[in-house]
User: Fold these one by one.
Assistant:
Number 1:
Amino acid sequence: MPDLLGLRGVAGEQILAWIRHARAMQEILQRPVAKVPALRGRRIALMFFENSTRTRMSFELAAKSLGADVLNFSASGSSLAKGETILDTAKTISALGADCMVVRDGHSQMPAYLSQHLEEPVINAGDGTNEHPTQALLDLCVLAQLWQGRFEDRLLVIVGDVARSRVARSHLWAARALGHRVRLVGPRQFFEPGLVEAFGCELTSDLDAGLRGADAVMALRVQKERRQQGGPWLSSQLDYFRTYGLTRARLQQHGEAVPLLHPGPVNRAMELAPDLLYDADRSQIQTQVQTGVALRMAVLYWALGGSDEQIVERVHAGT
Ligand code: CP
């Protein structure tokens, strides 16, 4: 059974296949009864050891839209508080009959570690500062729509806390596979040494220079919880917003219609001006959340052995 632990080493054809499958799933979600029995009788375990709103809820909705049952695990209120380990928790959920494990954890590589000890496929729902593959894939679904399916020569500008961002890392791996350019913009202290060499991306600390020529702009959340409050990493929230905050005026200098993405959750008035958040002309944020359900349906179906042809057959058969 396949795992989805990250986009590192994943071929462009596989990424494009997930995007294509997600489109078929979107068709299911638009029906009056937005449900098919493709995974009826299968059990998807949602194992979230770190907080989440959109990833968790969209995986749950994705599983239920495919007719699967959901085993919901939350760290708070669980036997972790009595000293049970994450591996023993996963083994317990496996014994309850889970067919697939969706794992979020604050530690990088926890999904990879669990996959070494479990028979069931493991899907990474975000691990520490490593990767968040389904977030990057859903963003790529949105970009595929905006860019008419052509990635080559497009420029995705990612602004913000790059070093701590698992979303940025998944995007950097995906860009290597799909052939689009990525330019990272942020304060120098947010960059890791070796990024340019590892990924062939562009890097600048000048936001206005960084936005030039962008085909899409993605702001990243400043990971306040992963940095020491009041430490030397940032002088102040206001200072960050003045230097790196995206505003309508700033984006307008670089093309009237450049689309704006953010994986969420947003620190208002830090990464984005609040009036941009739901700006119908630019903001893709609600579309990203909606697309997450279809993309996660495609990934769950793939992880449990479905094929493209089967999805298309079921969509057309109305089952
Ligand atoms: N983008 C994202 O992972 O959001 P959640 O933390 O709410 O799941």
Number 2:
Amino acid sequence: MSKEVILTGIRSNDEPTLGNLLGAMTPLINMQKERAGEYQVNMFVPDLHSFTTPIDHGTLYQNTIRNLKYFVAAGLDINEPNTFIYRQSYIPAHAELTWILDCFTGFGEAARMVEFKDKSKQVGDDRVTVGLFNYPILMAADILLYGAKWVPVGDDQRQHLELTRDLAIRLNNRFGDLFVVPEPADKQLSFSERDNQVRIRSLRTPEKKMSKSVEDPAGTILLKDKPEEAAAKVMAATTDSVGVINFDWEKQPGVTNLLQILALTTRQPQDKVNSEWSGKSSYGELKAAVAAEVKSLLSDFQEKLTQVDKEALMRKLEADEDAMRKVAEDTLRKVQKAVGLRPS
Ligand code: TRP
């Protein structure tokens, strides 16, 4: 019996932040530690997805490799034999299956995707591309090529997962058993035990999530920031005038964000951190505690980054791309036969 497949995407382009590390990278790395072996874990870089909205193409290739190195520095084990790391664009079947799925997806069905509508608004009408529209179908191909049953995505990707399921079921009904249908979103949540509350906010505007530094340099800690500078950003974080520490995203998002960062950086349950700090009045002390943790976390991370063996990483990538290309091609071949492009 082959193992059930867990599949996740690793963003390729943006400069990773502390929010990415605590909210996305660390949970994935923990998932690898807990699940690989019993499951096959596919971690791939959706590099074809990375320019559905405009980017700087001059840095894309290097940024992809950099982000993979960051994962290794954060604890991803590249020697784990059941983990496969690969770049989407190195496996042509992704693009080929996307085309076939496109022709079974309703225009209206794709136009209902909330992420498409939101991102279209952000980039402005004249910059909305067909690629952005097609994004969820490519995502469906990413999942269906490998028979992935488990796709631990955040809330914002839930609708795309449902679309993937709809497409798999639609083609299975029409052509027989072509695809493994991924589990529904609710089951994915309980499977991944993913805490959707983990969303690190900006240190300056804690109503918003921590995002790219160009938009919010003082509110964003980058993993490449100097540890002392990161600590200074924490010390300058926006709080409130309540004067008492409480974990309350509505009324005290700044303080609550700090409590969350403290729990994650010290690897303690949120409740424990809250009971230690709730009711105290010194925001300065809380900031100092968080700043110290962030500083040591970054020093540690940056030290590990210098030790990442790039050659070993590239060998792993290429070997996994060869292995996964075969898996993807097998699925594509089945689909091509089913739709009449190849003799059955
Ligand atoms: N859309 C995902 C995100 O924004 C990335 C992604 C692309 C992905 N293809 C995927 C995630 C397939 C899971 C499975 O995070």
